[in-house]
């Protein structure tokens, strides 16, 4: 397997970065928009539930919306600028932190964020969870 040829520190960096991304995102949000205090990760919660709590939202509907939002955005597989850029830079065996930075720079382009805008327009149009779930599932299999 290809990973056996990578130095152990590359694997360690990738795993550390993946494990900390939720906490880093929450700290950025809380420092910019709130008081800077972030709740600790709860191992009994899923990823979306932890992120919503760490961002400071307690409404159960927000937690469910975060779950649906992450379903839409977590499965990029290289079809957009940031995921493709991350994969491309990684194919040169670059440091995982540099790969993530390259992908984040791709987010800055004005043509990248359309999925976010479509998602939030769905939120504006659909008020109930059943309708939103239908649109998410329809989009996944379209």
Q: What labels would you give this structure?
A:
single chain; 142 residues; mainly alpha; 0% strand; globular
Q: Any chance you could write out the topology, listing elements then pairs?
A:
Blueprint: H1 8-33, H2 47-55, H3 60-74, H4 81-90, H5 96-107, H6 114-125, H7 129-140
Structure description:
The protein is mainly alpha-helical and 142 residues long. It is built from seven helices and no strands. α2 (47-55) crosses α3 (60-74) and α3 (60-74) packs parallel to α7.
Sum this structure up briefly.
It contains seven helices and no strands. It is an all-alpha fold and about 140 residues long. α1 packs parallel to α2 and α2 crosses α3.
Overall SS class: mainly alpha
Strand content: under 5%
Mean pLDDT figure: 81
Element string (H = helix, E = strand): HHHHHHH
Euclidean distance between termini CA atoms? 33 Å
Query: In DSSP terms, counting alpha (H) and pi (I) runs of 4 or more, how many helices?
Result: 7
Query: What shape does the CA trace take?
Result: globular
The description of the largest β-sheet is: none
Poorly predicted segments? none
The percentage helix is: 55-70%
Which oligomerization state do the chains in this entry correspond to?
A: single chain
Q: Say how many strands there are.
A: 0
- Rg is 17 Å
